[in-house]
Amino acid sequence: MREACGVVGVVAPGRAVAHACYDGLYALQHRGQESAGMAASDGRQITVVKDNGLVSHVFSEPTLQALGGSLVIGHTRYSTSGSANWTAAQPAFRPAGPAGFALAHNGNLTNTSDLAASAGLEAHDVLSDSDLLAELLARALDEGATVPQALYDVLSRAQGAFSLVVLEADVVHAVRDPYGFRPLCLGRLGPPEAPTGWVVASETPALDVMGAAFVREVEPGELVTLSAAGVVSTRLLEPAAGPQRLCIFEFVYFARPDAYLLGHQVHSARRRMGSLLAGSEPVAADLVIGVPDSGVPAAEGYAQASGIPFGQGLVKNRYIGRTFITPDQEQRAAGVRRKLNALRDTIAGQRLVVVDDSVVRGTTTRALVRMLRDAGAREVHLRISSPPFAWPCYYGIDTPTREELLATRFDRAGMRDFVGADSLAFLTLEDLRAAVGVAEGCCDACLTGRYPAPVPVTVGADRGRW
Ligand code: SF4
């Protein structure tokens, strides 16, 4: 699975904010490593810098200096819709309205074809769903709408997941879809009695690194407008009925462990997942290890609850970009070896409990089990801190087709045999919800098949790329 984008927006009157945005994007690098970009405004003119590559590769001191001004939005990208090439990097700019605007998007629309057709566009006319949003907004602005009016016009017809930031010459807007699939939070620069600026970001660690205090999450359907005058909140779209639907895999895997989501720190939730897994799926073993990164806190929780010692059995190469790993079946085993290596002295002769966050196709898990056995593990008992992943995601996470998912191809015994483990067990959905602490407040469609928002094609066929 791959995450699909991180967004940042900063407004701090009288201060150049490109460096702050850089820090925020750097903190969100895990949400997208294909491209990075920023759009900054000095109050009159918008300047955009974007390119393929990591944040640290795209921006240098000269480019940050060129992004002058006290308003900025930024983006890190992994593509789930449209092309992965340079032209699809964000922010997307359009010279519409008084000074043009730039847009950056985290999420995935599920009715892109219909939206494009409504504007007389073919799928090949736009680079991505984000590019389509920019184009539709530009057309509404050209007809005289303000940006909030244009956002309403376009987003009230859009389906799927979107956490957007939009830069005008003197304003940054942030808006979240009616379900709240992808996270988005608001922060404050300076003391509460005299704020010096305002920040929005996909995850709270981006606020931390920019020195911003967490204020609150942007609500589903809410439009937050940041300017020199402060923050204005508007109910742009009616929230979906029922609880919000933040992606439950933000807790399991995507978000940073130091992030807070719905008031809960992700690291603590992952520990609880492991603890509950130890209660429901015990096994006699000598050592508990976690698969870095998100499997480690779950392994700590499993070890603590089971009384089996915790150890570090795998070392991760922290300098490998995910895009470096060629995503085809033959290359996956090599990808695992590039990314992880076993600590032989620790695991040789041991009966291992190996805690990982998920099993998707099963091919990387199989390569991992083989690596542990090659390093001398006597037994390998896999414990997964989420239920079987059985349905594709249409809301901004890149997943395989349903036919490629291990959980749809085999029963539990078949899955265990495919990955080559001595035993394989999963956290139940009830325990996952309990660990997250928001019983009814998350999307879990990839685990249950219950999609809260319409999906683009018959589930079970293609992913709905267009
Ligand atoms: S389908 Fe799964 S991965 Fe996609 S938003 Fe819902 S919980 Fe997250």
Structural class: alpha+beta
Q: Kindly provide the radius of gyration, computed on alpha-carbon positions and rounded to a whole number of angstroms.
A: 22 Å
| Strand order, sheet with most strands | 3-2-4-1-10-9-11
Are any ligands bound, and if so which?
A: iron/sulfur cluster
Tally of alpha and pi helices: 17
Whole-number average pLDDT?
91
Could you tell me the strand content as a percent range? 15-25%
CATH topology of the largest domain: Glutamine Phosphoribosylpyrophosphate, subunit 1, domain 1
Termini Cα gap: 19 Å
Concise structural overview:
By secondary structure, this protein is an alpha+beta fold.
What does this structure look like?
This protein is of the alpha+beta class and 466 residues long. The chain folds into two domains: 6-241, 4-Layer Sandwich (Glutamine Phosphoribosylpyrophosphate, subunit 1, domain 1), CATH 3.60.20.10; 265-442, Rossmann fold, CATH 3.40.50.2020. Helix content is 30%, strand content 24%. The chain has 17 helices and 23 strands. It has helices at 18-27, 55-58, 61-66, 112-118, 129-142, 147-155, 204-210, 249-254, 266-280, 295-306, 329-339, 344-347, 363-374, 406-409, 412-419, 429-436, 445-448, and strands at 6-11, 35-41, 46-52, 71-77, 92-94, 101-109, 160-167, 172-176, 185-189, 197-201, 213-217, 222-227, 230-235, 246-247, 260-261, 264-265, 287-290, 314-316, 340-342, 351-356, 379-384, 423-426, 442-443. The chain has a seven-stranded antiparallel sheet, covered by helices on one side. β9 (185-189) and β10 (197-201) form a beta hairpin. α5 (129-142) crosses α6. Mean pLDDT is 91; it is low at 323-327 and 458-466. Iron/sulfur cluster (SF4) binds at residues 181, 247-249, 393, 395, 397, 443-446.
